[in-house]
Amino acid sequence: MLIQNESRVKEYLPITGLADFNKLSAKLIFGADSPAIQENRVATVQCLSGTGSLRVGGEFLARHYHERTIYIPQPTWGNHPKVFTLAGLTARSYRYYDPATRGLDFQGLLEDISSAPSGAIVLLHACAHNPTGVDPTLEQWEQIRQLMRSKALLPFFDSAYQGFASGSLDKDAQSVRMFVADGGELLMAQSYAKNMGLYGERVGALSIVCGSADIAVKVESQLKLVIRPMYSNPPLHGASIVATILKDSAMFDEWTLELKAMADRIISMREQLFNALKIRGPSVSKLWMFNLLVHFLLIPLCQSVDHLSYHAETPGDWSHIIKQIGMFTFTGLNSDQVAFMRQEYHIYMTSDGRISMAGLSSRTVPHLADAIHAAVTK
Ligand code: PMP
C-alpha cells in the first residue's frame, strides 16, 4: 500500500495533535454512530502511542479527579503500574487470571471490584488481554459494566490490539462500546503500534468521554496543560499516515483485510500448536519399545491396576492455547520449565511462560511443541 507523504511539511502540530486523526480515532474505537461523538461529548488528543495516552490520562486524573486509586488486573502489562504510579495515582490490583483453569477468575474480579472505594478508577484491557490472552465474554463484560456503574467506578480502557484479536475492528471494540452506550464517563487509550505496524512512529490517542459537550471542552483545555510541559506537541508523520488510511475507503478496506489475515494467521498458529502437542510423544522407535514393554511386561504384571494407561500426547490440558485471544498465550509453563526450554532448546520467552503467537510459523511450531513436551515430561 502506497501512502503519499502528506507530511513533507515539518511544521509543529497543535498541542492536541492532528485534528483529523483525533476525530477518526474516536470514530474507529467508539463507532461512527456513537452517541457520545454525535453529542460532542468526547475530548480526544493525539499522544505518544498507547503508553503516552495512558500516561497523559493518568496525569490528568491525578490532577483533576477526586479519587486517586487505580485498580489494574493481576497480571497486566508490566508498564501499567509504573506509568500510573509516576503519573501520581496509587495502583492496586484486582484478581483477573486463574492459573488453575488458565482462564478468567471472574468471581475474584467481581469481588475485588465490588470492594473498591466508590469512584475508583479501573483499568480494563479492551480486548486481547496482555499477558494472559484471556478476555471476559460479552455477558461477563455486561456484568462488569453494571457493577462498575452501580459503584460509580471510572473505566479506563487500554486498547492496544483493536482488530488484532478477532480480525474485526468492531468486534474488538464491543466491550468499550457497551460502556459508552450507557451514557457514562470513561477514558480510552488507543495505540496504532500493532494494528497498523507503526511501533516506532509512536502514534496513539487518548479520548475522554464526558457527561456533556461543555465538560468535554473544559477537559480538552486541561489536557493541553498536561501535555504542553511534557512534550509540547506530538509527532506529525505517524498520525498523518493513520489519518490518510482511515479517511480513504479503499485504503481502509485494504487495511482491514490485512488485519484479518494477521489475526487469522495467529488463530491458525494456536490450532497448529495445540494439535502438535496432542500428538507429541516419545519418538517412533522409543514408542515402539514402550508399546512392547507395556503390552508384554507391564500389563500382565499389573493386571490389578485398572488405571494403567499411556498417552502419546503431551500431559495436561492445552485447550487454553486455542481458547485464549490475541497475540499472547499464557502457556502455564513455570519458570523452571521456561529455563529448561531456553537451555536445551534455545527457545526464549518471559519467565511467566508468556509466548507471542505472532512470532511462530508452521515451520517452528514442531520445535516448540517438542520443547514443551520435553519440559513437562522431564
Ligand atoms: N497496553 C498494552 C496492554 C500493551 O500490550 C502495550 C504494548 N505492549 C501498550 C499498551 C503500549 O504500547 P505502545 O506504547 O507501543 O503503543
From TrEMBL:
GO CC terms of this entry: mitochondrion
- Required cofactor names: pyridoxal 5'-phosphate
Q: Which domain of life is it from?
A: Eukaryota
Q: Where is the Aminotransferase class I/classII large domain?
A: 7-279, 313-372
Known catalytic reactions? L-aspartate + 2-oxoglutarate = oxaloacetate + L-glutamate
The UniProt entry's GO biological process terms, in alphabetical order, are:
amino acid metabolic process
Ranges annotated as spanning the membrane: none
Record text on subunit structure and interactions? Homodimer.
What name goes with this protein?
Aspartate aminotransferase
